[in-house]
């Protein structure tokens, strides 16, 4: 992973919380904010990957990153974890609601239980993590929330209807939260990644051939890796974006 050269001094010693931070885009975000001097905590259920990330960054950042094993479907546990982060590190300055599950599922096979679980993993926690973090942001005079959507729902892809529905809903939720929290100086924006090649994607879905086909649709003929999302997230969370809220930023190499 390349180290971001841009520096945002406003993040130094500030508390940043990332959900789904143990691998993929989330891990890149954890590292990106940590290398800015922030006190970064992250939530994940993947213990082995998360502990590997903590160990890899040990001694390389101004503050050690903090991993909290949390099942985001358990809202009470989620609230306890957010409160523990605030108690340990101080008011949350930046929240990145990144956690998601892009499981492929056949339209005819989706059950009520599957649908509800999918929405719990991909949508519900976005609201409740934000709700839990908001009091500390208010107390500190403001903050920034970044929600992670996807361009997938814009491409008429039939392989994950529940996931697509959740990612579309994240944009609506972003705009509603921006309207509610803006008067309290809390900004809420959204990032829509395109095809970001991660280890999980390569293991489960992508091939060299499918990546090549996707590149044909992009204006930029580069393979997007997880760190392609770090710069946009830093920008949206920073003072450079102080006048931006309720916005959706597409990072897809020029597909849309």
What would your notes on this structure say?
With 256 residues, the protein is of the alpha/beta class. It has one domain: Rossmann fold, CATH 3.40.50. 43% of the residues lie in helices and 15% in strands. It has 8 helices and 7 strands, in the order βαβαβαβαβαβαααβ. It has helices spanning 24-34, 47-57, 75-89, 112-140, 161-181, 199-204, 208-217, 230-237; strands at 15-19, 39-44, 66-69, 92-97, 143-148, 186-193, 248-251. The chain has a 7-stranded parallel sheet, with helices on both faces. Strand 4 (92-97), helix 4 and strand 5 (143-148) form a beta-alpha-beta unit. It is globular, with a radius of gyration of 17 Å. The mean pLDDT is 95.
Index terms:
256 residues; alpha/beta; Rossmann fold; seven-stranded parallel β-sheet; 8 helices; 43% helix; globular
Number of helices: 8
Main sheet summary = 7 strands, parallel
Task: Give the strand line-up of the largest sheet.
Answer: 3-2-1-4-5-6-7
How many domain regions?
A: 1
Shape: globular
Low-confidence runs: none
Output the CATH class name.
Alpha Beta
Q: Helical proportion?
A: 40-55%
Mean pLDDT: 95
CATH evolutionary superfamily = NAD(P)-binding Rossmann-like Domain
Q: Could you tell me the strand content as a percent range?
A: 15-25%
Brief account:
The protein has 256 residues and is α/β, with parallel strands linked by helices.
């Amino acid at each position: 992973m390349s180290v971001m050269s841009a520096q945002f001094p406003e993040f130094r010693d500030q508390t940043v919380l990332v959900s789904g931070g143990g691998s993929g885009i989330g891990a890149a975000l954890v590292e990106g904010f940590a290398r800015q001097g922030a006190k970064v905590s992250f939530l994940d259920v993947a213990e082995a990957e998360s502990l590997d990330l903590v160990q890899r960054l040990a001694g390389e950042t101004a503050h050690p990153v903090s991993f909290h094993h949390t099942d985001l479907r358990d809202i009470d546990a989620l609230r306890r974890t957010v409160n523990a982060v605030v108690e340990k590190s101080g008011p949350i300055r930046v929240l990145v609601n990144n956690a998601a599950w892009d499981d492929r599922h056949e339209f005819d096979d989706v059950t009520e239980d599957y649908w509800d679980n999918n929405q719990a993993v991909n949508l519900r926690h976005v609201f409740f993590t934000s709700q839990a973090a908001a009091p500390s942001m208010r107390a500190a005079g403001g903050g920034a929330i970044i929600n992670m959507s996807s361009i997938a729902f814009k491409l008429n892809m039939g392989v994950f209807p529940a996931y697509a529905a959740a990612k579309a809903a994240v944009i609506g939720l972003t705009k509603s939260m921006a309207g509610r929290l803006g008067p309290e100086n809390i900004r809420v924006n959204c990032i829509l990644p395109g095809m970001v090649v991660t280890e999980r994607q390569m293991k489960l879905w992508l091939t060299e051939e499918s990546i090549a086909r996707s590149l044909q649709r992009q204006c930029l003929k580069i393979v997007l890796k997880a760190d392609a999302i770090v710069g946009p997230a830093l920008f949206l969370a920073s003072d450079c974006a102080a006048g931006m809220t309720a916005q959706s930023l597409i990072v897809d190499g020029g597909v849309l």
